[in-house]
């Protein structure tokens, strides 16, 4: 599904990009754009704390002793619709474009497989769609797919075995087959070790935008990327959906300084007219003073990371003013947020007390909250 490439000079100037409006498309179709509508007679709308399923029902960590990390194949239709069974707002997934211009869902830069006892790797973007779909479980009855392995962060090659498997999918299929009430956080994936020319980035983003334009309908969408140029370009190429800049928040160091702190992330957003930041949660806990600066810049803030699978850490973020979390333990965290944040808001409003309706069960004085914020950076170092 190729799109005609445009010249760099044809990309709209950033000065023409409208001002940040982070709330426009942030909420799932279960809620209106201003927040959660608590009942049909409610006149007061409460901003929604977003819960987003990481790669659907949760990422796979094959070497983990926790069976939840190997329950369902990540980034598949099955994983997405399994996540939709719980009270979440969005799913997050990774999009790359094959060499024949088809956006597909896959996280890693390389696919690993084995033939005749030899392990080989193939870059996803150098495969055709047909080649990509040949790996793993096949949709056609009786058809055997190529073996699928995965390389762990410590360099081990493991069989990609999960309790419930599913076949690979395209972005178009995801729009067609996933519960329409679920919003999509589309992460635009690029290899950290490759320097991309702008015309290549533009072409890839246009191919993705063409599919989104054809299939999105009323589904809420957020674009995000660790690649600062790609994030700013997708904002230039469209103004329908909000764009967030992904960052490790200073927990890792990169050659591109724009990726090395929350302060740099703010600059990327302000320079490019982006609507928000998605940070590794440790980056936020290690630098809590950045949260008010992000808010003062009228940016939204979401987080990702293993600590988001801990209910107390998630509720702490709600108290800090963070707008939502990307989580692996979808069932546990969505229910915890519902019990500790959403239901207390509903109850307060039903009682006609707007002030009560802005609080959760976890209530702290400003002094206690300040103490916790100072304590968190110490805790995450251990």
Automatic annotation (TrEMBL):
GO terms for biological process: glycerol metabolic process; glycerophospholipid catabolic process. It catalyses: a sn-glycero-3-phosphodiester + H2O = an alcohol + sn-glycerol 3-phosphate + H(+). GO terms for molecular function: glycerophosphodiester phosphodiesterase activity. It comes from the Eukaryota. It holds the Pfam family GDPD. Keywords: Glycerol metabolism, Hydrolase. Its EC number is 3.1.4.46. InterPro entries: GDPD, GP_PDE_dom, PLC-like_Pdiesterase_TIM-brl. Residues 49-337 form the GP-PDE domain. PANTHER family: GLYCEROPHOSPHOCHOLINE PHOSPHODIESTERASE GPCPD1 (PTHR22958:SF1), GLYCEROPHOSPHORYL DIESTER PHOSPHODIESTERASE (PTHR22958). Belongs to the glycerophosphoryl diester phosphodiesterase family. This is glycerophosphodiester phosphodiesterase. The gene is LOC107914174.
């Amino acid at each position: 599904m190729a799109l005609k490439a445009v010249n760099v000079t044809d990309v709209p100037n950033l000065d023409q990009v409208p001002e940040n409006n982070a709330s426009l498309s942030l909420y799932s179709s279960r809620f209106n754009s201003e927040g959660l509508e608590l009942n049909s007679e409610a006149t007061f709308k409460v901003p929604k704390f977003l819960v987003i399923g990481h790669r659907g029902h949760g990422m796979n960590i094959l070497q983990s002793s926790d069976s939840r990390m190997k329950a369902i194949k990540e980034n598949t239709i099955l994983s997405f619709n399994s996540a939709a069974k719980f009270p979440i707002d969005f799913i997050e997934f990774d999009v790359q474009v094959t060499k024949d211009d088809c956006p597909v869902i896959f996280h890693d830069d390389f696919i690993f497989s084995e033939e005749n006892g030899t392990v080989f790797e193939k870059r996803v973007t150098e495969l055709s769609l047909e080649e990509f779909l040949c790996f793993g479980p096949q949709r056609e009855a009786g058809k055997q797919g190529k073996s699928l392995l995965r390389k762990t962060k410590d360099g081990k090659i493991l069989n990609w075995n999960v309790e419930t498997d599913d076949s690979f999918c395209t972005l178009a299929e995801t729009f067609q087959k996933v519960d329409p009430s679920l919003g999509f956080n589309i992460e635009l994936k690029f290899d950290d070790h490759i320097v991309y020319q702008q015309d290549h980035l533009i072409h890839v983003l246009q191919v993705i935008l063409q599919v989104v334009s054809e299939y999105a309908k009323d589904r809420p969408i957020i674009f995000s990327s660790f690649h600062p140029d790609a994030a700013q370009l997708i904002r230039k190429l469209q103004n329908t959906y909000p764009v967030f800049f992904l960052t490790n928040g200073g927990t890792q160091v990169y050659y591109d300084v724009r990726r090395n702190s929350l302060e740099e992330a703010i600059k990327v957003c302000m320079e490019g007219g982006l609507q928000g930041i998605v940070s590794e949660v440790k980056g936020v806990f290690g630098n809590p003073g950045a949260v008010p600066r992000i808010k003062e810049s009228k940016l939204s803030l979401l987080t990702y990371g293993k600590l988001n699978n801990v209910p107390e850490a998630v509720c702490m973020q709600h108290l800090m003013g963070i707008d939502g979390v990307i989580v692996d333990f979808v069932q546990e965290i969505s229910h915890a947020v519902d019990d500790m944040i959403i239901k207390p808001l509903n109850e307060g409003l039903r009682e006609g007390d707007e002030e009560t309706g802005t609080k959760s069960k976890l209530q702290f004085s400003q002094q206690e909250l300040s103490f916790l914020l100072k304590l968190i950076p110490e805790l995450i170092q251990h």
